[in-house]
Structures are given as C-alpha cells and as structure tokens.
C-alpha cells in the first residue's frame, strides 16, 4: 500500500489516495498527481509505504510547525 499526502507550508492538506497496488504503478500515480496538483506550487508531496508511516510523519510534521 502507498499513501499519498500533500503538505502546504503550514499543515497537512489531506491524504488524497491510498493505493493497494501502488508499488507496481508508482510512476504512473506520480504523473497523475502532478497533473492534478501542479497548480499548488507550495505543496510538497510524500509517498509512504503503509498508513502507519504516513500518520507518524504527519504527526511529526504538524508538531514541528507548532
């Protein structure tokens, strides 16, 4: 499973997709993401293998911003 999260410079925007088959389609999914979200240049984009890793990173990121 791959979890995709976007961050603005202030907060986690959202988890926009969880893909069970993403390991085999990662490059294709990256292209889809960049086409969809290219108009939001302040975002960074992160891939995580497993929801628990994504959640831990999101918690760390939001705690650092406080």
Our count of helices gives 2
Extract low-pLDDT stretches. none
Shape: flat
Over all CA atoms, what is the radius of gyration? 12 Å
The oligomerization state is single chain
The SS-based structural class is alpha+beta
State mean pLDDT (0 to 100 scale). 64
Order of helices and strands: EEHEH
What's the β-strand tally?
3
Helix content: 40-55%
In which order are the strands of the major sheet placed? 2-1-3
Number of domains: 1
Question: How much beta, percentage-wise?
Answer: 25-35%
Distance between the termini: 30 Å
Please summarize the sheet with the most strands.
Answer: 3 strands, antiparallel
Descriptive overview:
With 66 residues, this protein is an alpha+beta fold. The chain has one domain. Helix content is 47%, strand content 30%. The chain has helices spanning 22-37, 51-65; strands at residues 2-7, 12-19, 44-49. The longest helix has 16 residues, at 22-37. It is flat, with a radius of gyration of 12 Å.
């Amino acid at each position: 499973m791959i979890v995709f999260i976007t961050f603005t410079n202030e907060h986690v925007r959202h988890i926009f997709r969880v893909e069970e088959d993403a390991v085999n389609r990662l490059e294709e999914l990256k292209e889809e993401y960049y086409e969809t979200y290219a108009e939001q240049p302040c975002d960074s984009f992160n891939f995580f293998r497993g929801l628990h890793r994504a959640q831990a990173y999101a918690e760390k990121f939001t705690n650092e911003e406080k």
